[in-house]
Every structure is written in C-alpha cells, then in structure tokens.
Amino acid sequence: MALKVAIVGLPNVGKSTLFNALTQTAAAQAANYPFCTIEPNVGDVAVPESRLPVLAEIAGSKELIPARIHFVDVAGLVRGASKGEGLGNQFLATIRDCDAIAMVSRCFLGDDIIHVEGRVDPLADLEIIETELMLADLESLEKRLPALEKRVRGGDKEAIATQRLVTQALALLNAGRPARAAVVEKEDEKSWRMLQLLTAKPVLLVCNVDEGSADKGNALSDKVAARGAQDGARSVVISARIESEIALLPLGDRAEFLETLGLVEPGLNRMIREAYRLLGLQTYFTVGPKEAHAWTIHVGDTAPQAAGVIHTDFEKGFIRAETIACDDYIKYRGESGARDAGKFRLEGKEYVVQDGDVMHFRFTA
Predict the structure, then answer these.
(1) Between 266 and 54, residue with greater pLDDT
(2) What pLDDT does 26 receive?
(3) Is the pLDDT of residue 90 over 80?
(4) For the chain, where are the alpha helices, taking DSSP H only?
(5) What's the rounded Cα separation, in Å, for the pair 22 and 247?
(6) Which is nearest to 19 in space by CA: 222, 244, 235, 231?
(7) DSSP for 182-232?
(8) pLDDT tens figures, 6-40
(9) In this structure, are residues 197 and 169 in contact, taking their beta carbons and an 8 Å threshold?
(10) CB of 162 within 8 A of CB of 188?
(11) Are 325 and 316 in contact (CB under 8 A)?
(12) What's the pLDDT band for 69 if we cut at 50, 70, 90?
C-alpha cells in the first residue's frame, strides 16, 4: 500500500522547495515566479522508521526495505482554477488521484519572494484553495445529475443510492462546507469514495515558516493550527528552506545541524507521520536473513488483510500468523529469544494487527 499525497498551495508558498527536500532531488524547479511547476512531479520517499534498522541488525538482514510514500507536487492554484484560470483543471484532476492533500500555506514574511495575492495571509490562502476545490466538486456533481436522474427514473437501484449521496454532497458544498464534513454510513463508504470528491479527501495543513520559527512556529502558523483544530484537520510546522538544506547534508552531519537549530528531527519526518495518522495507517514488519521489510496497513486491519498487502494469495490461503510484538522482538533479541520468553504467538483470521508487529504468515497455495 503506497500512500499518495498531493502537495497543494498558492504559487510561491514553498511547495516545490518542500517537494525537493522530500525527494532529495531537484526534480521540481523551485523558482520565484508563478507556475514554475508545469507538470505534476511525483516523488517516492521512504517512511521514517527507527525500528526497522534495529530489527534488521538483530536478524542479520542483508537488506532494509522501508514503507514508501508518494508525494505529488501540484502547480500553484489561483483564484478561478476550477474554471481553468492559471493551469486550472488539469491539476485538479491530479489531486483527484491522491489519497490526501497537504495544503501548504505561507507563514513567513519577506519581500524577496512574491506572493501572487500581494499579501501574506495564510488563512486567506487556505480559503482560496478550499473554495476552488469546492467549486470543482460542485461542477463535477452537477454534470453527473442529468444522466443519474435518467437512471433513477428507470428504477436503477445503484443510481438511486448514488443520487442520495450526490444530494448530500451538494447540500454541503452549496452551504460552503467541504464534502469531508459529511456523515456517511458504513454501507455507503465505497459509493461515497466513487464520487471522487476533492473536498472529501483528508487534509493536512502544512505551515511553511521562516528558519527562526522551525521549532515552535510563529503567530501566522498559530492561526493556521487554530483553524485546523476548529475544522478537525491536522497541522504541522515546517521550514521548507531548512529541510532543503538538511536534504543536501551527509547523513552523519544532519543530527548536529538539527541540534544547532533546536530541532530533534527533520520536520519532514513529522509531516509524514501526520500524513499516516491522517489516513489511519500503521506499520508491521516481516524480518529475516534476506530482508527486513516495513509494510503499511490500516489501523484495524486483520492478519489476513495484512498478509494480502504482501500478496493476494497470502490473504486467500491464510492459515495463521506467527506474531511477535516489536518491543518483545527487540528485548529478547529475535524470534528464538521471544519464543523462549513466551512472547511468540500464533494468531488466526480474527486477529487485529497491532502497530509494530513482527509477522510471518502461514498459508496454502
């Protein structure tokens, strides 16, 4: 399972600088003018996981394979993007393919970087983005209505259910609220996702601050955090400029550099963790002499579902899962020690996997 997050914001708020830091490449041109990102850039990065190298060392694994996360750097949105202004609808379509949206807002002052709106107001920036996404959703739903209503008149049960969800979404959007504010019944969740609404996607608010505010944020990022808390959205403070500097340093020099800034870890680590929490994801491990592998699953997934992330045959033919909690695997120095300490378990189809479980699956072909 690879999480895909769209990095969205107005021009010149630091999206491409952040993307470059995330991918440690210069794939996205960070330039001081609007629309410098002409095509959406996709970066594939490892999810920070401090437990993986420890497990690998214990097991003598030859290779470490972390979980992956995809970031998509989307060109700056402007007023009227939903109607084709700027680079318009092609980028809204890119966002539609992602699992979540990281809305980057400018939370730093300075005349050296031009703001497309001629002012620095992160809340107003977020309002523009949200409005354009809502307008795009409205247009999408209204275009579907004629064909949908025709199917409803013909007694199509699926169309009737879809029309009910479309009506619910339209009511929210016309009231100026995003689709993620909807309360959707469990049996409707799949159909709701099929609507592919931009404003139904989870949102992470990324506050791009100046270097001096990277540890605790500033007055501007505090406003964004307060708005996020009010709307039930997560937020994270990050200095894209600092992160781009860290990305260029040798691994051995990064800790010292962070310490001089009063930081414990890169802001990108926090951003990725928040993205995981936003989507209700967690990690389990498979460990052996060949490789130590981190796998991403949803919180609440059962052992067969976790096995299916490796291969669908593992889920179909699931028998049981050999399971050791990560802390126990580390404490007792591997499978043999954990088994001797009574920490080795055989779990069946109903077992709900816990974050950090070290697992080996038994299955029939």
Answers:
(1) 54
(2) 37
(3) no
(4) 15-23, 51-59, 89-96, 122-153, 157-174, 189-194, 219-231, 240-248, 251-260, 267-278, 303-310, 312-316, 326-331, 335-340
(5) 8
(6) 244
(7) ----GGGHHHHHHT--GGGS-EEEEEEE-GGGTTT--HHHHHHHHHHHHHT
(8) 999 888 888 888 888 887 643 433 444 444 444 55
(9) yes
(10) no
(11) no
(12) confident
Question: CA distances (Å), 27 to each of 6, 24, 36, 98, 240, in order?
Answer: 15, 9, 12, 19, 15
For range 153-171, the mean pLDDT: 92
pLDDT tops 50 at residue 270? yes
In the numeric block, the tokens 């579902």 are attached to 305
Question: Do 261 and 214 form a contact (C-beta atoms < 8 A)?
Answer: yes
Q: What does the alpha-carbon distance between residue 18 and residue 271 come to, in Å, rounded to a whole number?
A: 11
- Assigned token pair, 355: 């974050």
- In this prediction, residue 94 has a pLDDT band, given cuts at 50, 70 and 90, of confident
The single-letter code of the amino acid at 274 is E
Dig out the tokens for 164 from the structure. 């009910």
Q: Is the sign of the CA dihedral 166, 202, 52, 71 positive or negative?
A: positive
Residue reference for tokens 């949105």: 77
Average pLDDT across the chain, whole number: 87
Q: What stretch of H or E contains 241?
A: helix 240-248
In b/e form, how buried is each residue of 205-214, taking b as 16+ CB within 10 angstroms? bbbbbbeebb
The DSSP output letter for 302 is: B
In this structure, the strands spanning 234-238 and 203-209 are: parallel
Region of 35 please: left (phi>0), alpha (psi -120 to 50) or beta. left
Length of the chain: 365
Tokens 């050999």, located at residue = 322
Q: Do the Cβ atoms of 71 and 22 come closer than 8 Å?
A: yes
